[in-house]
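To close the chapter, one final illustration. This time we ask the reader to focus less on the individual chains and more on the assembly as a whole: which components sit near each other, and how the overall shape emerges from the parts.
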Amino acid sequence: MSKKKTPWQYAKPYLFLLPIYLLMVTFKYIPFGMAIQKSFYTWNGSNVNKFVGFANYIQAFKDPTFIVSLKNVGVIAIAYIVIVIVIPILAAELLYAVKSKRKQYVIRTAFTFPMVVPAVVVILLWKWILAGDNGVLNNVLTAVGLDNLVTPWLGSTKTALGAVIAVGFPWLGSATLGGLQFLLYYGALQSTSSDMFEAAEIDGANIVQRFFRIDLPMLSSQIKLAVTLAIINAVQVFDSINILTSGGPGTATIVPSLVLYEQGFTYKKMGYSSAIGVIMFAIIMVLTLINQLVMKNTEKMD
Amino acid sequence: MSKVVSILSRVLLGFLLLLTLLPFYLLTINAFKSQNEIILNPFKWASNWQFQNFVKAAPQIFRPMVNTLVVTVAVIAITLIVSLLASYAFTRYERFFAKEVLYFGIVALLMIPGFVMLIPQFVQITNLGLYNTLLGLILPPAAYQVAMGTFLTRTSMEGIPKSLFEAAEIEGANDMDILLRVVLPLSKPIMATVTIMTGLNAWNNYIWPLVASSGEKTQQIAVALTKIIVSVADGKGVEFAAYIIASLPLIILFCFASKYFVEGLTSGAVKG
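The assembled structure is written out below.
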């Protein structure tokens, strides 16, 4: 049955797509293009606007603060990757092992609840927990006689980066770091038929064997997603660091997003700042690609 | 052996849950305490309940909460309408020129980290006269959410049997009728998921309000919470009370729709 289409009918699908493209092109794709273009300019957002080639990029890799920020973000990324693999899988397995379905549901809901508390509230709570004076952690340490460990966790160069990563420990209530991954892993375990686990049990596989032979390979696509998200979150980490330490003490917790923010808005070096943004984009792309390749290889091994 | 393992795993799970919930226990009880009591022992139940902490906190965050509510509702509304229209184009029209290219153009946005565009976006809204306006706080985040929204609603809408569309068409229904009478009722679950996901992101947004707003007029809750001023006498209890008030809207929503929260949280993970 071939109907003759009127021009109006040809145009229709495009009309339905008009609002989304108007919105996305205006507020996302044009700024994205502009970021790439301006990364080759000296730019203050208005009257200063001069093409400088790769000068901003060269400056970035000569800027000791930016180099430190890359090192810090590397540490954060590795920590996040380990966190999102180890703890949420452990919690999901422990929850899945609970016999009663009702109890499983209640416990899962209890873990989900913190994820709806605004992230800033959680960060501010941890600022208090980790505080040097009257911080909860230091109070506990004093109470149990570990006075020698008492320290301004966020204010000391040695501990600040670790303290920033520790925010939200054990990270299962954090929507971006561990909690989301916990829900994903648990969902995957739930949706597998229990026959597989029973078969393994009959074959005499112990818990450890079952975990590495069955559960882990089964979760590989969730792990891949969790690692990708961990990388994206790590490279763009900003809220917690800006609120907790502003990158300090010194440059102990400085990260690229904070360098971008400060260079762009405090110093109005918006061209340089854009170049840092493009470098962040490139880092995320490369790391995601590596992750895809690595995970593809592990899938082949099974 | 397996008995020991099972007991140990229960204990470990309980311990993880305890540690996860502990900060929120601390938040809740200390919101009702005076500064002295908080310093004395943050873990203890309040002995002298300071309800006025909430009275003192409320005025400081009332305005930002109303502002954020307006922004959140607007972002959700734009996201739902725009993504449903876009998904309708992709599911209802089986082939049109550049269909999949246009779809890729939408989901590709999810792969670009927001920080890259931060500076040009700021310059752009300043040039458009949207700096420090609610519209300036609504449109750029909405432009991101619609990509996620389209990704989710298209997947769900593809599941609607084509015969339903055809039947409606034979009965003389136009696109608007089909959208409102066929697609909308069948898309309620995915719309709930998109609403929750978008709502969480809008309510939690910190970096964009930090850049695009200044002063009380448009201040958003995430930024306002970091700037609460309390007197030494009032102490941390007032801050904690403010945190609780700011968390209430989402917590209340969570109580009614925890199922959609789990879906909203996890389906948002597909980005990246």
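Residues 64-97 of chain A form the longest helix (34 residues). The first strand of chain A starts at residue 41 and ends at 43. With these observations in hand, you are ready for the problems at the end of the chapter.
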